[in-house]
Design goal:
Number of helices: 4
Shape: rod-shaped
Number of domains: 2
Largest sheet: none
Strand content: under 5%
Radius of gyration: 34 Å
Order of helices and strands: HHHH
């Protein structure tokens, strides 16, 4: 007898769930429609900035070496770390 009661409870609760399901789906569809309308306007307002590409280590190392040679020729103070940072700055600037 317990099995029959469980079966009846299962069949009775199924229609209730089916009736409640369309309401949240309608709300989701309305939200999606609202988002689609506002999305293009938001995209026009704030264009995405492209990140500057990092130069390869070989390019920076060569530039640092040239900075070092230039600094030694002119008898300027400095160190290898400063030469490297200057080389990175030179190659990361746009244009």
């Amino acid at each position: 007898m317990a099995a029959k009661k469980t079966a009846k409870t299962t069949t009775e609760s199924a229609p209730k769930k089916a009736e409640a399901t369309p309401k949240p789906a309608a709300k989701k569809a309305a939200k999606k429609a609202a988002v689609k309308k506002t999305a293009p306007a938001a995209a026009k307002k704030a264009p995405a900035k492209k990140a500057a590409a990092k130069p390869s280590l070989d390019v920076v190392a060569r530039a640092a070496y040239l900075n070092y040679r230039n600094r030694v020729e002119k008898d300027l103070p400095g160190d290898s770390h400063g030469d490297w940072l200057e080389a990175e700055r030179q190659h990361s600037e746009p244009g």
